[in-house]
Predict the 3D structure of the following.
Amino acid sequence: MPLFGKDLGIDLGTVNTIIAEGGEVVLFEPTVVAIDIEELKIVEVGQAAREMDGRVPDTIEIMHPLREGVIADFEVTHRMLGHFVEKVCGPARLFKPRIMMTVPYGVTSVESRAVHEAALQAGSRDAYLIQEPLAAAIGVGLPVATPSGNMVVTLGGGVTQAAVISTGGIVSADCVRIGGMRLDEAIIAYIRKKYGLVIGSRTAEEAKIRVGAAVPQDEDRSMEIQGQDQVTGLPRTVIIVTGEIVEALQETLQLQLAAVRNVLEHTPPELASDIIDRGMVITGGGSLLRGIDKWLTQKTGVAAYLAEDPVECISKGAARALTMLEKIRRYLPAV
Ligand SMILES: Nc1ncnc2c1ncn2[C@@H]1O[C@H](COP(=O)(O)OP(=O)(O)OP(=O)(O)O)[C@@H](O)[C@H]1O
Ligand SMILES: [Mg+2]
């Protein structure tokens, strides 16, 4: 326990914001804010705001302040973070927390400075940034400080990242601004084209999670989905099966694969042999897609396996990074 205030790891994601302290997750909320646009004030944040989506009058706007892994609306982001930090630390803070916050690999200095500033304005004493794949690798418990090749892939809602880490820092990495939300859009497009049915993004995500997969499965699941007929505008229902979602996702998965391929191609030979031996570990919400490990293994020829704690490991790794600052500091993004 730090002497002055808490040490928090914050995984600021396009879809979810997760805060860890020590080895525990202390907050897990959607990165969503509900704003009263007449009075210009925040009505709800996180889960409560997400639940209002689609059920509120015109005067309330449901905002997603991050897009493709980076801050799209600074004011809303830092106020949302302020709420989350207050929820974790309590309102009357004698000692402010230290915060280690994730940023996608390869963001611009302007983008990372915005995240740093948001962490400071949210009420931190010191704020540091860490590349998301490095936080994931630390959280998974890979031996990142040793001179060995460790490969990690993060499949988020807005971005896909792959990195090889050795001796405390990233040796080669790539990030594409395509993630789970694009998979949902691919499902929407597929259903519209095949059935002339318009569905919402929540329905598409549900289909991806409940019946979807990256590769054909022995057991085909099915699900009834509701939408609006493209021609008549009337509500209609269709039944979709796993095989259809697999087909709908392939093109977007290929775009995500580009990041992984790029990293494998640019890894120095000494480290590449470690990776061939040890494989790559997959993290992030997208790693929960059935068969994604098998799909990545097939497409790259390198064994891909799911982390034990694939979603929360990133925030836990960020929190842990605060305890090993001296070892990794020189590899963290400068602000
Ligand atoms: N079982 C599942 N199968 C497939 N996808 C899933 C599953 N569970 C969650 N997801 C997807 O994971 C994504 C959210 O993952 P995560 O919380 O890691 O993203 P994020 O950190 O907010 O985004 P980013 O890191 O890209 O900014 C969403 O697109 C969601 O649909
Ligand atoms: Mg993420």
Summary: Residues 7-134+315-331 form a domain with the Nucleotidyltransferase; domain 5 fold (CATH 3.30.420.40). The chain is about 40% helix and 30% strand. The chain has a mean pLDDT of 95. The pocket of adenosine-5'-triphosphate (ligand 1) is lined by residues 13-16, 69, 156-159, 179-181, 205, 208-209, 284-286, 288-289, 311 (CB under 6 Å).
